[in-house]
Design a protein that fits this description.
It is built from 14 helices and 19 strands. By secondary structure, it is of the alpha+beta class. Bound molecules: flavin-adenine dinucleotide. Flavin-adenine dinucleotide (FAD) binds next to strand 3, helix 5 and strand 10.
Length: 463
């Protein structure tokens, strides 16, 4: 394998498993500190689109599997694939904005924080991930459930076009006129996409003038009751209100009162992406109708929360340099049923840092019924996410067992999963179950058309 020849054709850098820095690099490629024991053979840190073309052609000539890294935020470390040539897009972060057309052209590895910082200068916004460091790259391919995703829609539907390096090493543009089937796939294909996206063209939105958040803290013994009531009022709230409940570590002010519940508290948050505080105040009246309002430990009502403040909040919920196991279920079951096991398992959670999140669909429309035709095709009334979060390797076993048991208890309420945040290592079937059956079939047919040799790493069972 002539890696020197490859290096001479690149602006970026080639590294191999025999380099002294390889192990440090391998770990740095993945955000989750629970680094998988999987070892790419060659890592190409590309510095341009042409570098991607060269890397793909080299892998093809050498018969190497290709794995792709945008920003390494996938929870199961999907870019790490044994024996592969890993294309690291981490340096491709350029953004160019056309404020009149309300469009942005971005390279894949720009983070949500940086994209929205640049858009804010033009009074524009995009539904980026909830945590500031999440890169657009894989987030958009997964579907992208970002801030105000109920109002603006899953982020992939705001991808208007993309530039892709195919398995043949060709650079193609996918939009409504050309390679429309590739654009269909990019909108939600998830992990193991059969090409490398080097550029996205995004539709932008005006920043709402009054982004406000109301937060209520309750003892977790009321989780199911609050969930039932919240699901009931959700249809009366505008879809621009993001409604979520958490089972989360109690903030210091409530820690003493949550000692008997293993340190966890139930948090209800509603963030309105509306234009006036008066508009925002109307739905918040509904939040005061909670049947256990008198048991509320504390609240912060109608706080101004610009997108930057929301991203800071996300950064605190999902701290860096921790070990994570993450899984999801989409559910239409009554919250009284699906939340009960969550409460019981959190009462015994081995780590005080773990977190559960229940995102409740708002607005009068059934979100599944209004999804445009694309690979992204799985939603339900509620998305339940469970995050085991801890720091010490010696706590791996206890947290792994706890997380798996919690998810097994939730499985019976699942209509499907979200490929972007599912544990497809523990449960490989979750990949397929993240799509409507017909959309999954079409995605596999497109994979066969665009990557007949299976050059791109798409499935650990196949690699
Ligand atoms: C702290 C944190 C918060 C998160 N919050 C959210 C959230 O609010 N909403 C949400 O929907 N998700 C969220 N996620 C999940 C996130 O969307 C995924 O982890 C996503 O994969 C991150 O993108 P990435 O580029 O870092 O992926 P990577 O880990 O770099 O890549 C994963 C795989 O995606 C594919 N891929 C990525 N980029 C490309 C590309 N340019 N071309 C071809 N294939 C590619 C490849 O198969 C790659 O191996 C969060 C994750 C973390 C760690």
């Amino acid at each position: 394998m002539d890696l020197k020849a490859l290096q001479s054709r690149l602006r970026g850098k080639v590294m191999t498993a025999t380099d002294a820095v390889y192990e440090d690099l391998r770990r740095e490629l993945i955000w989750n500190r629970l680094t998988p024991m999987r070892y790419p053979q060659v890592v190409v840190q590309v510095a341009s689109e042409q570098d991607v073309v060269e890397a793909v052609r080299f892998a093809r000539a050498e018969n190497l599997k290709i794995s792709v890294r945008g920003g390494g935020h996938n929870w199961v470390g999907f870019p790490l694939c044994d024996g592969s040539l890993l294309i690291d897009l981490g340096r491709l972060t350029r953004v160019s904005i056309d404020p009149q057309a309300r469009m942005a052209t971005i390279q894949p590895a720009v983070t949500g924080r940086e994209l929205n910082r640049q858009l804010a200068e033009h009074g524009l916004a995009f539904p980026v991930g909830h945590c500031p460091s999440v890169p657009m790259s894989g987030f958009l391919l997964n579907g992208g459930l970002g801030w105000n995703s109920n109002g603006w829609g899953p982020s992939c539907f705001s991808v208007e076009a993309a530039t892709v390096v195919t398995a043949d090493g060709d650079l193609v543009v996918a939009n409504r006129e050309q390679h429309a089937d590739l654009l269909w796939a990019i909108r939600g294909a998830g992990l193991g996409f059969f090409g490398v996206v080097t550029q996205y063209v995004l539709k932008l939105y005006p920043v709402p003038d009054a982004i406000t958040t109301s937060t209520y803290y309750y003892p977790i013994e009321h989780l199911e009751e609050i969930g039932t009531w919240a699901a009931g009022i959700a249809r009366q709230l505008p879809k621009e209100v993001e409604l979520a409940m958490f089972c989360a570590p109690a903030p210091p002010a409530y820690a003493e009162r949550c000692r008997s519940s293993n340190g966890f508290v139930c948090i209800l948050t509603a963030t309105a992406f509306l234009d006036t505080i008066i508009e925002a105040a109307v739905p918040f009246g509904l939040l005061e109708s909670c049947p256990v309002l008198s048991r509320c430990l504390g609240k912060d009502v109608l706080q101004p929360t610009p997108l930057d403040a929301l991203l800071d909040m996300g950064g605190r919920l999902w701290p860096e340099h921790h070990r994570y196991l993450v899984d999801t279920v989409w559910s239409n079951s009554p919250p009284a049923q699906s939340l009960a096991p969550v409460r019981e398992f959190f009462l015994q959670a081995p780590s005080p840092k773990s977190l559960a999140l229940f995102a409740i669909s708002t607005g009068v429309e059934d979100s599944a019924a209004v999804l445009p035709d694309a690979a992204f095709s799985m939603t339900a009334a509620m998305l339940l996410l469970c995050y085991a979060i801890w720091e010490r390797p010696e706590d791996d076993d206890a947290n792994t067992v706890w997380h798996r048991e919690t998810m097994t208890a939730l499985d019976r309420y699942a209509v499907g999963h979200y490929v972007g945040e599912s544990d497809i290592i523990a449960e490989p079937a979750r990949t397929e179950r993240s799509f409507a059956p017909a959309n999954w079939q079409r995605l596999q047919a497109l994979r066969h058309t665009y990557d007949p040799e299976g050059r791109f790493h798409s499935d650990f069972n196949a690699s």
